[in-house]
Design goal:
Layout lengths: L3 H4 E4 L3 H6 L4 E6 L5 H12 L3 E9 L3 E4 L2 E4 L3 E8 L6 E4 L5 E4 L15
Antiparallel strand pairs: 1-2, 2-6, 3-6, 4-5, 7-8
Length: 117
C-alpha cells in the first residue's frame, strides 16, 4: 500500500479553488493511478479531517516544443475533496440503556492548505 504522501502530491491553488474553501472543498494534485478511496484515506490521515466526497478529473499533458524539439508534459490528476465542516455530536445507546455521546474528533478545516507548494 502506498503512503498518503505518495498519493497527495501538492495543493492546486487557483482563484476558483480558493473560493471553494469556504464551502469545505479543497483541491489537490494527486497520483494519476490513485482511486477515490485511496485519496479519501490519504486526506483523512494527513489532515485529520472527515472526508464526505471526492471528485476527480484526469488531464492529458500538453504538447510543448522548444524550437524543433517536441515533447509532452506529463499527464496529471486533480482531486476535489469535500470535508465535513460541522461534525455533529453523535448520540447512541450503550449497554444498560445509558445514552452516550461522542465528541468532535475531526478538524473542520485544513490549515496547511496552500502553505506547501
Amino acid at each position: 500500500m502506498r503512503s498518503p504522501e505518495d498519493i497527495i502530491k501538492k495543493p492546486y491553488v487557483t482563484e476558483k479553488s480558493n473560493a471553494e474553501i469556504a464551502a469545505g472543498k479543497y483541491t489537490f494534485i494527486v497520483d494519476p493511478k490513485a482511486t477515490k478511496t485511496e485519496i479519501r484515506i490519504a486526506v483523512e490521515k494527513l489532515f485529520q479531517v472527515k472526508v464526505l466526497q471526492v471528485n476527480t478529473a484526469n488531464y492529458e499533458g500538453k504538447e510543448k516544443r522548444m524550437g524543433v524539439h517536441v515533447g509532452n508534459r506529463p499527464d496529471w490528476k486533480k482531486a476535489i475533496v469535500k470535508i465535513d465542516m460541522d461534525p455533529k455530536v453523535v448520540e447512541y445507546q450503550a449497554k444498560g440503556g445509558k445514552t452516550t455521546t461522542s465528541g468532535k474528533k475531526y478538524k473542520t478545516s485544513i490549515e496547511e492548505f496552500g502553505a506547501t507548494q
